[in-house]
Amino acid sequence: MSMNPFLEKFDTPFETVPFDKIKTEHFKPAIEAAMTEGKAEVKAITDNAEAPTFVNTVEALERAGSKVNIVAGVLSNLNSAETSPEIQELAKDIFPMITEYGNDILLDEALFARIKAVYEQKEALSLSAEQTTLLDKTYKSFVRNGANLNDTDKQKLREIDVALSKLSVQFGQNVLADTNAYTMHLTDEADLEGLPDQVREAAAMTAKQMEKEGWVFTLQYPSYVPFMTYASKRELREKLAKAYAKRGCQGNDNDNQKIVKDFARLRYERANLLGYATHADFVLEQRMASTPKVVENFLNDLLKHAKPAADKEMQELVSYAKKLDGIEEMQRWDYAYYSEKLKKEKFNIDDEMLKPYFELDKVIEGIFAVAKKLYGLNFKANADIPVYHPEVKAYEVEDEEGRHVSVFYADFFPREGKRNGAWMTSFRGQKVVNEEEQRPHVSIVCNFTKPTETRPSLLTFNEVLTFFHEFGHALHGMLASGNYESLSGTHVYWDFVELPSQIMENWVFEKETLDIFAQHYKTGESIPADLIQRIKDSANYMQGYQTVRQISFGRLDMAWHAQDPRNVGDIATFEREVGEETRLFPESKENNSMSCGFSHIFAGGYSAGYYSYKWAEVLDADAYEYFQENGIFDSKTAQSFKDNILAKGGSEHPMVLYKRFRGKEPSPEALLRRAGLIESK
């Protein structure tokens, strides 16, 4: 075998991952060597003859196993963004090994005894707020992973954790396989009625790549969403929508129905083993929301305001569809089509009108300009930084004084090896070791509309919002400024992590922002002021519906995780019962399952946490009102947000950090005002 690049110092700009040298066969030897090194570092802690201290025990453990994090991070990110059958097999093999490695540490009695000794004297140690947080988090991570269990129960916990690790990988691979397996091949141009030229051209390109005549549509978002929004042929929208809804629940080799039940059952049993009533009780102990009851009340309160608005919106939409096309019963595959038509009629605005002003390259320039105005950042493309796919762009990021801040990767377009959706991730976190700072390497991954042979990539308004959202997460990672990697950047309470991302979306609705980058890709003309006003006027369009939809996802998540799931029989029946109060469409006669494709909670870390999107909206609406009061590019407000939120990561409790920025606790009324669900001030 050639030299393993993982086991050498990375000889690349800013010690970035040498993707150009890494081969599939490097991963397993690298992770085995990294785990051996990590275990030796842990053994050095437990063998230390000196009395346990914060530095020789807690801080030493924080530093241990850094190579494991690097190798595992690269594999995990490739498995999401540029996977292959070989990578998928490696993931199935290696991730359970990493789980075992983690359990070996968390169930090490000698190590826990040292940590407990430090924890029990923490009041006398004169620790900083950040050190206190690290000590608390470390101690609780051991307790929450079975350190106080007897040997029999520790073994049970190990078995559950390995099983959960395998299920997570398999769930994600099954959804991706079903997504990639389906295509809708059309050869009659009449079937394309209503579709914009760019959508037709993209479908023709897909067909050409598959060596087929005509047009091919897939379940990838940039293909699926435009078809559902613009295709006039109702029966074809129905066909595509049903294919999307069946991902993971078709009774084939990719079926997730048993996996979902096993997942929920094992999480419940794990929580019980650790002394918690449910998985949600376990998870929420370390969230701002704190208990399932708080989440339930939060979602119910939102529903009380949103459901009447959603019912009114749907009544209007049903009447509109009936008047337009004689539709007697609104189905899920009708919603995007008729809501887009009604939006255009009410506000004289639609995506096709806006897309010419959102050329991807211009949006990139614009988002970098916003980051400079707010936080003094400069982005410079660097072709010498290796990337994992030719479409990925790499940038070095500097502050106003020219100091290195971060490396930033951007991966914008769908591929067969990339899962759906958009996310931020990192290849290296920020930390300080021996007074030397390691700056972060951060990435965003999206699935935006690809350029065609005749047009550049033109984004929908929602894609622009998505870009700003993920870039907000990236700023959280890039501007991290702490001592410990496990507390820096996005390592925060899960219901706080969406604040930096969701607040960024607000700038997209502002004329001051759009004037920076929204220019027609052909003429260079700036987006007209009246079009910007129409964007603002339409911002609350269907907000009742959208809010109820998000609440329904949050409730489904809690239904799986805030009670005993072992009695769930048929999943579709279970989902119908859970969704009764949030239902806005007729009951489906198909035996589909939202849960079987719900990657957020079964493969993405959001179990008992999907509510956090709405929770963070309360935070971001309240925080953005502060920006509006002072000016959306006010340097003092931006500096405070950077210093107290973005730079601090999880070094202190999020409410402490938020109040330091805002001067008060957040008010839910700010969100309800923004959504038009209560009167404005």
TrEMBL record:
Pfam families with a match to the protein in the record: Peptidase_M3, TOP_N
InterPro entries assigned: M3A_DCP, MetalloPept_cat_dom_sf, Neurolysin/TOP_dom2, OpdA_N, Pept_M3A_M3B, Pept_M3A_M3B_dom
Group of enzyme by EC: hydrolase
Molecular function terms, GO-annotated: carboxypeptidase activity; metal ion binding; metalloendopeptidase activity
GO BP annotations listed: proteolysis
Domain Oligopeptidase A N-terminal: 34-154
Gene Ontology CC: cytosol
Stated family: Belongs to the peptidase M3 family.
Name recorded for this polypeptide: oligopeptidase A
Organism: Microscilla marina ATCC 23134
